[in-house]
Each structure stands twice: as C-alpha cells, then as structure tokens.
Amino acid sequence: MNNNFNKFPENFLWGGALAANQCEGGYKEGGKGLTTVDLCPAGENRRKVMEGKIDILKPVDGEYYPSHESIDFYHRFREDIALFAEMGFKCLRISIAWSRIFPNGDEETPNEEGLKFYDEMFDEMIKHGIEPVVTICHFDTPIGIIEKFGGWKNRKFVDFYLNYCKAIFTRYKNKVKYWMTFNEINMILHLPFMGAGVRFDEGDNELQIKYQSAHHELIASALATKMAHEIIPGSMVGCMLAAGVTYAYSCNPEDVQKAMDKERENLFFIDVQSRGEYPGYAKRFLRENGIEIVFGEKDEEILKNNTVDFIGFSYYSSRCASVNPEVVNGKTAGNVFKTVRNPYLKVSEWGWQIDPLGLRITANQLYDRYQKPLFIVENGLGAVDTPEEDGTINDDYRIEYLSEHVKAMKEAIADGVDLIGYTPWGCIDLVSASTGEMKKRYGFIYVDKDNEGNGTLNRSKKKSFYWYKKVIETNGEEV
C-alpha cells in the first residue's frame, strides 16, 4: 500500500508511448505485409478510409501514405531508445506490427525476420533499463486476411489473432511482462476499418456488424489473456480504452441521461473485459436496436473466466453531452469523438478540450468502477512546434499541459486510485493517427519532417525533454 498519499509510488512506471503503425516505417521491409494503416492516406480521404467508407486493399497511385516511412523508427530505434533512456524512462509503450510477424495474417509459421526485429528492439530497451509495455494490436490488422475473410466480423479472426499471440508470447516471454490486447478497442464503433479491418457494402446493417466484430475482439482478448497467463507466469495483461469523462452540459436530467449513455457506449468494452459479462444496459441497447450477437457455445464462460489484470487508457480531453439542438450544433472537433463545446475549457489548435481535472475525474471513475490497477498509456498535447534560429524548440505550452495533468494524477493517487504508470503519447514526434499529419506534434523529441514527407528525419531535443527528465528524476515531485 502506498502510505505517502500525495506521492507517486516508488516503482511508478514513467515512460512514453508509441505505435508501430505511426513510427516504424519500413512498410515493405523485413518481410512485412500490408496492414490497415498502410492504406490510410493523408488528406481528405483519410477519414473515409478509416471508417470503411472507401473500399481499397492496396495503395492508390497519387496518394501520400505517411505510415510508409513515418519517422523511420524501424532503422533508428537504437538512437531513439538512447534518447528515451537519457530522459530516464522506466518503461516504453510500443506495439508489435502484426503483419511483421504474419505478413498475410493466416500463415502457420511466423516470419523470423520480423520476430528478430522486435527481439533487437526489446533487448535495446532492456539494456537501458526500460520495461517494454506492448500493445498486441494497434490499428494494424493484416490486409491479407481482411481481403480473404472480411475483417473482424469473421469469427476466424479470433484464431488468426491467437496464433499471432502464441508466437509473440512464446518468443518474448522472458522480455515482456506488460501486455495490452487491443488499442482503444472502442474505436471499432468510430473507425471500423482502421480499428478492425471492417468494410461496409451498401445496405449493410453497420451497427450489427460493428458489435458482432467487437464481440469477436472481446473473445480474442479474453483468450489472449488466458494464454499469456499460461505461457508467461506473472504477466500483466490489460485492456485499453479511449477514455474521457462525459459531462452533462446542464443539470437537465435529460442531459445527465445523455451523458451517461455516451459514457456507457465506451465503457461497455471495458465492462466486458474487466467484469467478464455483457452489462444489462448493453443488452438493452442491443435488443432495442435489433442487434443479435452470435455467441459461441462457450463464449460466456470464456469472458467470465479471463478478465484483464489492469485497465490501460488514453486521456486527452473530457467530453460534454446535451439533448438541446442549439447546444449540440456548437460541437467541437475533439478528436474522433465529436463533443459539445464546454464553455469552461480552453481548446488546443485542433479543437481538443483541455481539462486536467477531467483526468482525475476519469481515473476515479474507472477505479471506482473496476477496482483494478490503472495505467495511463496515452496523454499529451498535439501542437505546431516551430524551431528557433538556433534550433531550440520552446514548447512551454506542452510543458504546461503535461504539468497540470501530472498534478491531476497525483491528486487521483491521493484519492486512493491505484495508478501504476504514465506514458505520454508520441514521446518522439510521429504521424498523427487521426489526421496523418506530422505538424501535429506531441513529442519531447522533434523529428525534422513535414506533412508532405520532406525533411532530414534528424532528431533534436525540445524544452519539454529536459522538463520531463526532471519529472522522472524527482518521481513527480518537480513538475
């Protein structure tokens, strides 16, 4: 028990977060197959592709695909990990690209070259005393099995995923303790192609397909949790939610109900992964919307007996809900989640509402609900960074944002929340998942590359690099 109520635990996992599909590049190297993000272009068609509204299964001439090179972490990971070590990282959240291990997704044996790449990456992290925290599937389902079997709406994907899990659990069992099964699993409702390789034909019941696909992912997550515990004794397996408390815009009970409904739309996934069953409100929603989930014979038992060990979540901003049409028309961009504009909050350059107190509220909400350790695996401010003439980057706005959120974390710990780690998103600049941009930067480390793919890819330290180093050195006492 942490008896220093307003201090971070001594073993707190300070670090940073990346994803293979947004940093690696090398999209055809090492035997890698195509994956969903490799088909998400920059520009106006990006969102339509991510939503499954444009049906493409190979790159299109004339489009720019930022993931193909990204920041070239594939070749530069040693240099970058050394910089993370210089900041004092205790852990690094990274994902494995499924299609590096199984290029098409349905091979019987894994690609040795892909396995070796992650061996080298994990070895480099461990050499520097950095604990790997690995997301198994982070928006990069192999195109080969999508083309053959139609994405996660097909139950066969459970077996493909488990074959992949077996390969990586077996290979890295002595190197990786912390795992997360799916990144932002609730994103399947919002970006179904990017999140689950799901595409739609005219006349499809999209809601039915989304929830059936989600069920398959939930079964896969439970069975992967079981497998990890068997292959890697002492492993910690978590879920991962795109989180953020939803406030009622007013004290009108209808606004309160609307906010609760919006919260439940996302918490449904974690309710199942953490509690092991479909909650009553979800059963009602499915029933009233004519959605019939096809359960396998043992699915209820699988979910009940294989709940996660911790709750991983991203937090960038809070949300707000109302039933008033005039209020609803004032929505802000707010990432993938369109949300009513909260008049009490400032917004970022991309319209994301800045709410540090919302992080404390969200952490308390999740811990009260699940009573499982929490891990904040994404948080940060996307902003345009402009180097000075001497090359320095004075990102005081990022320091202010992160500082206030670290203070909110400390308050949550004082509230009694069991918080085990914090990995700010994009600890080195990378490609934005939502927009495909490079100018929307999150990192402590600047990467010389622009939205069109031009630049040297040289790395340089921002002012926030030194700030975060001090935060880690003092275990959150100096923020």
Automatic annotation (TrEMBL):
Which EC class, in a word? hydrolase
Tell me which Pfam families the record gives: Glyco_hydro_1 (PF00232)
- MF terms per GO, please? 6-phospho-beta-glucosidase activity
**Source organism's superkingdom?**
Bacteria
- Enzyme nomenclature, EC number: 3.2.1.86
| Protein keywords | Glycosidase, Hydrolase
Catalytic residues (positions): E378 (nucleophile)
Concerning PANTHER family, the annotation shows: 6-PHOSPHO-BETA-GLUCOSIDASE, GLYCOSYL HYDROLASE
Name assigned to this protein: 6-phospho-beta-glucosidase
User: Lineage of the native species?
Assistant: Bacteria, Bacillati, Bacillota, Clostridia, Eubacteriales
